[in-house]
Amino acid sequence: MRRLFLTFVALVAASVVMAAECVIIPRPASYEPQKGKCVLTPKSVVYAADKSLVRPATMFVSYVKAENGLDLAVVESAPKGKGAISLYLDKGLAEEGYLLEVTKAGVIIKGGSAKAVFYGLQSLRQVVLNAKHKGVKIAIDCMTVKDKPHFGYRGGMLDVCRHFFNVEEVKKFIDILAMHKLNRFHWHLTEDQGWRIEIKSHPELTKIGSVRKETAVYNTNPKSGRTQIVGYDGKPYGGFFTQDEVRDIVRYAAERYIEVIPEIDMPGHMVAALATYPELGCTKGPYEVRKKWGIAKDVLCAGRETTYAFIEDVLDEVVALFPSKYIHIGGDECPKHRWKECPDCQKRIKEEGLKDEHELQSYFMKRIEKYLNTKHGRSIIGWDEILEGGVSKTATVMAWRGAKRGVVAAKLGNKVIMTPTHFCYLDFANTTNREKNGEPICGGRNGKRPLTLRKVYSFDPYADLTTDEQRCIVGVQGNLWTEYIADFDHAQRMTLPRIAAIAEVGWSYGNKSYDDFSRRMHLLRKLYDKCGYKYAPYFFNGIE
Ligand code: ACM
Ligand code: ZN
């Protein structure tokens, strides 16, 4: 009897081991392991049942070849025999929802759109890498995955102004977003420290505005722990994207089902434009492209018509380059010192019956929003400062100074993208003891506000909102500001693995578990290695 019992225990234990655990990040809505394995061989094909699926199929084939050495063919007629990966559209599924079924006979992915099938293939990509490899044969566990994201907007932002990243690097950033099923690339293109997009009607912007004379050098103040300037490097620093390069990047992102949202930050963070055209500033200059970080007092003059004409010229070209529904028009960190002293700004305040400079900023943002709405049929996103002095109902608010700003916007009924510093700022330290762990200087008060993987993962975009107000939260985004990030290896180490936590917050709301995420994160690391991505080592070494 005892022997029988032990045999029973052994069998149960074996079946527990047999039931393969989910390896996918972000965590799917539903995952059921099934018995058996499906064997992929060099004879396996990827069948695209619809023309629109050839592209995701081809993309998947290139991943599997690079990461597993298995060279699969894409076919457009239904395959016979075992081990095929068959892709179908199924309009009964959600637009971003997919079904992934692995049986002994083969793999089937059905998606509500080509984008959804692409997400199914991103999941399969992780499954394949973690499967048993025997030479050129890969035995993947049978499973049923039914999946769709919780939030429709899942973004990553890259600042290419404080430091410049070239076309290949930006594409790699986009690849990283796509791997994590993020669907928006927010491209921060203009700043005090550099104007980075070619505008043909104003070619001087990228001649003068794209280059700063030199850059401040920072270290850590031993007393305060904050960053401090210790000198200037004496080296001109510049870079910009031609319109052809912009189109190339927008196309590259679209092939990966990512919409690129350009940001032209106004009326603050405009010193590079002021240096180019001093007449756009209240004092009319002279100005120089800013050499240090922080907030500049010099901003666009909101009184004179010439400012609005300039912005409209710029936006006409931006809109032609970016087919996105949204155009981000900034609105953050615009000090009011110059407007208080400027006769033109004061005249505008009087003429428009505005109460103060905050209402002048609101006038500015609303006027630009109206221009984009009526002339170009686009919607705007603005940083949460657009709430000050009044916001239009149709603006989408990007909450950055704490989720509570998003709560305020949602209570007003505005759409909100949550990207609070407390959870989503990827330029902040990865660990709670930056210096001890050898992390370089960084944002978030130089490590005083650490953002561990666990902390990012803990973000609840719905906290403090009623069910009705929750409907205003359209999604989440991780932001990579690059004041202290001078090269792309460093940029990757700040992005990875924390963007995986952002992705799971956005995709798997209500279905999260940090313990389970940690287990899967160790598996996703293999994919980072295969792709040659750099990532922060701390989590993998058990350091928080
Ligand atoms: C911001 O971080 N200034 C939006
Ligand atoms: Zn002015």
Task: Describe the structure in your own words.
Helix 2 packs parallel to helix 3 (114-129) and helix 8 crosses helix 11 (357-376). The chain is globular. It has 19 helices and 22 strands. The two termini are 49 Å apart. Residues 11-17 have low confidence and may be disordered. Helix 2 links the parallel strand 2 (45-48) and strand 3 (73-75). The protein has 544 residues and is of the alpha/beta class. It is 37% helix and 21% strand. The chain folds into 3 domains: 20-147, Chitobiase, domain 2; 149-170 and 399-413 and 421-544, TIM Barrel (Alpha-Beta Barrel); 189-392, TIM Barrel (Alpha-Beta Barrel). Strands 1, 2, 3, 4, 5, 6, 7 and 8 form an 8-stranded mixed beta sheet that branches. An 8-stranded parallel β-barrel has the order 9-10-17-18-19-20-21-22, surrounded by 7 helices. Bound molecules: acetamide (ACM) and zinc ion. The site of zinc ion (ZN) has 8 residues, from helix 10.
